[in-house]
Amino acid sequence: MQRAAGVLPIRKRQRVTELLCTKNDETEFCEVVVYLVERRMGSNRRAFLMDLARKKGFRVDTDLSESVTHIVAESSSYAQVLEWIQKQGKTISPDCNLLDICWFTESMKARTPVEIEERHQLMVEMACTVKVSAPSQAQISQYACQRRTTLNNHNKVLTDACDIMAEYYEIKEIKGQYIGFMRASSVLKSLPHAITSIRNLEGIPWLGDHVKSFIEEIIEDGESSKVNQLLSDKKHATIKLFKSVFGVGPKTAEKWYWMGFRSLEEIKQDQTLIFTKMQKAGLLYYDDISRSVCKEEADAVQQILVDIVQNIYPKAAVTLTGGFRRGKKIGHDIDFLISNPDLGTEDDILQKVLSKLLAQKLLLYCDINESTFEPGKLPSRKVDALDHFLKSFIILKLNKVLVDYESCDGHQDVTGSDRKDWKAVRVDIVVPPFDRYPFALLGWTGSRQFERDLRRYATHEKNMMVDNHILYDKTKKTFLTATSEEEIFMHLGLDYIEPWERNA
Ligand code: DCT
Ligand code: MG
Questions:
Q1: In CATH, what is the architecture of 144-230?
Q2: Which amino acid residue places its CA nearest to atom 23 of ligand 1?
């Protein structure tokens, strides 16, 4: 793979510098004129990065002109950027550098334009082009945080089958197999094409022998005998049913099965079982909360929370996170972050929100997890551990009149056939301290596999630790601050992945 040559010669650079730097210039490195290519980057991110660079003393031009010395592009090849420039009807200086975003990221981190190395230059052929016949291993990252995974899944048959296997092994607590199928499903979801032949599997990471033969069977026979076996396994189906009750984990589900229970009716009617408060609510509202929540319902709940929060703290924001932030149209619950610029108001906000919901008779169930967050503490090594922020798991009584069901696909499935004018919905509300908000947002946006891989990548590739609270550089022994998700990606040397590209 050849790299494009062309670092601006020093003499020419000086000439450009003289032309560009006026005495009033606030930029520190006026020999460098950066231009960010919007293609693949998106206008919002471009605006954010331009602003960031200017704050760090860089000259960034909004328009592409011959004075630009450094053109920076994301996920693009040399040829693609040149073609794009031509399409815009622009010309650039022959000595202009066409660079990958990694040069920009490193320069932001160093607060100075870093020396251009070969790896910073755009490649003549695009490295991430996936050849449909046989993608090479180097082209698909083993980390979900280096892949763009939208909801446009070209391999649904395969990933659904892998997800069924993963869920089975999760319940059985066979971690190796569970992770294996999760990773395989995740990488298949990111492919830009459908796998139609065994040859297509070459070079795709995480397809070990076991998973490969599982997939090969589906490609050849159109179905998996293992999945069919699981789907007709009554024991597995019963344990899954019990586990689908809010507050019931795999251990309790399995215990109920071994105690001889086979249906939720039997569980509900039994006089000897002792339920937790959460399980009681889970059983009571099971019909509603076992159904999917649609985006329109999430929007209605957000409006209820916004109305309450803005009355108490006008500067506070209510952000929809979880699957809905990744663009999903349905989910099993609705996840929110509430953030207020005034530190120390978290308890008060949550208390007042819950009191108000209670007064409005909308709070069917509520469980509060007090904050155990200690600033300056290193993150937990447990990848799946919940965070330490103040949060509340609730069941909300949502008035159906508030929901625009007309816009909701398959709204019969969502609302059910009952005649009551409300639906019970599961809502999580997290209230992190304001300076932790970008980390909390990144953590709560998910997907779970994306978060796992982000942590694994930070540890193994960067000697850093990241979680919902902090980013820690183990080499420098320092905590890195961030005011946005973009900055966290930048600290980690990662291209920014939009929320809707995190459906790993
Ligand atoms: N999360 C995580 N690790 C976990 C659980 C959750 O990183 N063990 C993060 C990722 C998603 C986010 O929290 C919200 O969790 P869920 O609501 O379980 O996931 P979701 O993606 O919103 O899925 P759904 O659409 O079904 O609600
Ligand atoms: Mg969710």
A1: Orthogonal Bundle (1.10)
A2: 323
